[in-house]
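Title: Prediction job returns without error message
Component: structure pipeline
Severity: low
Priority: P3
Assignee: unassigned

Description:
Job completed but the reporter wants confirmation the result is attached to the right record. Sequence as submitted:
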Amino acid sequence: MRVQAARKLLEEKGLDAAFIASPANIRYLSGFAGTDSYLYLSSKRQVILTDSRYTLQAEEEGKDCEVRTIKGERVYGVLLKELLEEDKVKRLGFEDGVMTWQFVKKLQEAAGDKWGEERWVPLGEELSLLRAVKDEGEIEKLARAEQIGDEAFSYILTQIKPGITELEIAAKLEYYMKSHGAQEKGFDTIAASGLHSAMPHAVPSEKVLEKGDFLTLDFGCKYQGYCSDMTRTVVIGKAGEKQKEIYKIVLEAQEAALAGLRAGMTGAEGDALARKVIEEAGCGDYFGHGLGHSVGLEIHEKPALSPKDQTILRPGIIETVEPGIYIPGLGGVRIEDMTVITENGIKNLTSSPKELIEL
């Protein structure tokens, strides 16, 4: 079904074949999970182009694919030229958002003069958007990845204490996930305490946790290639009244979005569900990012829950729901769950508690 959908897209665009560079798209269409490789797709065949490091892996994982390996002067451009000539390709789609201009020029030169720029058609994100709606098998993997994250959060609550550093917290989270079934972290872990929590994408540092700090933890892992993503914010020691107030607003905003999200609305309408709550509380200036994003083989996929995204949400699309308030000089709160869009609402894949935790 996946390859059929990709071939239908090529047919609609009047293309004879596509040269695919995105590792996520290659894995989605062929099953091959290696890196530094490419996929050639035409109406006749799928061919993985790789080097000797991945030949055996490509042959094992790419069950329905031919495998061609670069060797000596037989570089990727030469392999592509061979395929274009064998299939008598006239128009080729390529992932312009993934491949560098320099690499494309090298491919064009290797393919010969008749393969000038006019025969190369940019695909933009159209191949990636084929991955937007997840099937049952994908959702099961995403759910397992998120479950590992939930278990990691329960564990890290036993480790958080004044005097430990942000870097130590991040390392403990990542070790726990990898030792409990995760292949690797899904993205760079965020452990942001005190004033650092006012930075939505703060990098863990040697700062030690202190009593009275907010601690925002944004983390996830990969399970069989699929990512998880969750955020929780806790307080070291007792929370102050302002901290409780901010936390309450963010939690109410998230609950409003979780209750209102459903198939048929746009990403912008989904974003507005939470943004309205935060704005009405007088904190709109402190919520500077979109409400959420899709997740799959990559941690940030489309469509998104953002004021600018007019994509219609469909059943099977994954969306994070992560409102936040970030106040310089005070700190910030973000609460994030990963959900599956359904006809009548959402299925929440995240089960960690969301009441304000004071440690």
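Comment from assignee: result matches the submitted record. The first helix runs from residue 2 to 12.
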